[in-house]
Amino acid sequence: MVRYGLFLGCLIPFRYPSVELAARKALELLGADFTDVKGYSCCPEPVITRLMDRELWLALSARNMALAEEQGVDALFVLCNGCYETLFEAKEALKEPEELEKVNSILAKFGHKYKGEVELLHAVEALHRDFLPAIRDALKAPFRAKVALHYGCHMFRSRPGEDIWEKPNMMVELVRALGADVVDYGLERLCCGFPSSNVDVEFSLKERLAPKLKAITDAGAECVVMACPACISQFETGQIALRRWGMRFDVPVLHLMEVLAMCLGVEPGELGLEVHRSPVVELAGRIWG
Q1: At a CB cut-off of 8 Å and minimum separation 6, what does 116 contact?
Q2: CA neighbours within 13 Å on the CB side: how many for 92?
Q3: Integer Cα distance of 11 and 273 in angstroms
Q4: Helices (H), 94-223
Q5: Which fold would CATH assign to domain 3-122?
Q6: 11, 37, 194, 273: which sits with the fewest CB atoms below 10 Å from its CB?
Q7: pTM for this structure?
Q8: What pLDDT tens digit does each residue of the chain (289 aa) get?
Q9: 3-class SS at 218?
Q10: SS3 of residue 258 by DSSP
Q11: Is the peptide bond prior to 44 cis by the omega test (within 30 degrees of 0)?
Q12: 84 by DSSP, 3-state: which?
């Protein structure tokens, strides 16, 4: 059995602890062998950090993976698209001997060494590869809803020769296995606007998020499911912010792990869904209450 290292990132523990709770409960119910990666830091953020200080970005990423190796982890179970992106890019960069030597010279000062032995898996990949039959067998409370999926830009990061739609297609299969009717809305690949919100909030909301929300609503979806806490934040706080321009949306936004936990029989009240700023509690009460 694969020993997974749970990599939570920063946003999940601090802004969406319901996702952390759901992940722990779901993995326990599926009989997974998992542990926390003790002492991990920010991944770090995959775009700006790399542009500002590539050496720092690479060293921090390598340290996180080195910690997992030292703790006997076979594969990282990554719950955040952004964390997956940065760890993926670092792992690829560290295949170059010169980069590996440079980074390990930094890590050696702190008693660590990155060997490249730990496997890196997005939560969607891990669930699909190792747990899909178990999920189907353990299903207790099917997700009887019309569901839109937002994959998030970083989920399309692919290994050499891999179809960029591999992980998104896995996500579709997982959500359908949970009993949902996955609806097409035509803008699945459009960015939610979170990155551009750092530069132009109005553009990120009106030209990125609003078209997605309108398409999701027009398609008749009752909620949107995703696997990225930054995207969850953009969808939830963005729906509130769009009201200043007269646009009102009330789309519940859930992380895949929250859905999975409730489908496996975890009561909604055990997850602390009140942290959400979209009508998730109401949706969960109607479907799983």
Answers
A1: 65, 91, 94, 95, 100
A2: 10
A3: 15
A4: 97-107, 123-138, 166-177, 201-203, 210-218
A5: Glutathione S-transferase Yfyf (Class Pi); Chain A, domain 2 (1.20.1050)
A6: 11
A7: 0.95
A8: 899 999 999 999 999 999 999 999 999 999 999 999 999 999 988 777 777 888 999 999 999 999 999 999 999 999 999 999 999 999 999 999 999 999 999 999 999 999 999 999 999 999 999 999 999 999 999 999 999 999 999 999 888 888 999 999 999 999 999 999 999 999 999 999 888 887 888 999 999 999 999 999 999 999 999 999 999 999 999 999 999 999 999 999 999 999 999 999 999 999 999 999 999 999 999 999 8
A9: helix
A10: helix
A11: yes
A12: helix
101 SS3 class: helix
Which residue matches tokens 């009106």? 206
DSSP 8-state symbol, 263: H
CA distance 47 to 49: 6
Spell out the domain ranges in the chain.
3-122, 141-288
Looking only at the bridges linking them, the beta strands covering 75-78 and 146-149 are unpaired
Q: Which of 87, 99, 31 is nearest to 61 (CA)?
A: 87
Give just the sign of the alpha carbon dihedral 195, 14, 261, 123. Answer: positive
Q: Around Cβ 289, how many Cβ atoms within 10 Å?
A: 13
Residues 109, 86: Cα–Cα separation, whole Å:
23
Query: Which residues on adjacent β-strands are paired with residue 195?
Result: none
CATH code of the domain occupying 141-288: 3.40.50.11810
As a whole number of angstroms, the distance between CA 216 and CA 198 comes to: 24
Please name the residue that has the structure tokens 């109401």: 282
**CB of 134 within 8 A of CB of 31?**
yes
For the chain, report the end-to-end CA distance as a whole number of angstroms: 34
Contact present, 98 and 245 (Cβ < 8 Å)? no
